[in-house]
Specification:
Jelly Rolls, single chain, 12 strands, five-stranded antiparallel β-sheet, mainly beta
Length: 137
């Protein structure tokens, strides 16, 4: 069963005088089996990333370095902005959730964990199609 709630997940942190360590484990920390991992970096100032939803895919986005905002819109039209700037938090994004990323700081690095391999047919890239898809479901 897929949780349909967008939410921040706090990852375990281990601290000692040498620094900090955070880890990810399935299903203890990540609530799905990871099938794909990708990252974005060197995003020019003022650019956006994303701008789509998935029909089936669930994703967690982590700011490994720097900061950026993730704007999500649910299939019910509810919108919220999340600022990611700590590597021990991840934003859980279920299917049928429109998202885009903006406001990237210099040298920001976003890590994306997904429960599906890349499949172009799973993407909803037009916002009007997304709105209509939500009405059909």
């Amino acid at each position: 069963m897929i949780d349909s709630t967008v939410r921040l997940i706090e990852f375990p942190k281990i601290s000692d005088p040498r620094g900090k360590l955070t880890f990810l484990e399935c299903p203890k920390v990540i609530p799905f089996e990871i099938e794909r991992v990708f990252w974005t970096y060197d995003v020019p100032g003022g650019e956006h990333r994303g701008g789509h939803a998935y029909q089936q895919q669930t994703e967690i986005i982590i700011a490994l370095s720097g900061s950026f905002d993730v704007v999500v819109v649910s299939s019910r039209g509810e919108s919220q902005k999340y600022t990611l700037n700590r590597s021990y938090y991840g934003l859980y994004i279920p299917p049928h959730t429109w998202r885009h990323m903006e406001n990237f700081s210099t040298n920001s690095l976003s890590l994306h964990l997904s429960d599906h391999v890349f499949d172009e047919s799973d993407y909803i890239r037009d916002f009007n199609d997304f709105v209509n898809y939500g009405r059909i479901q």
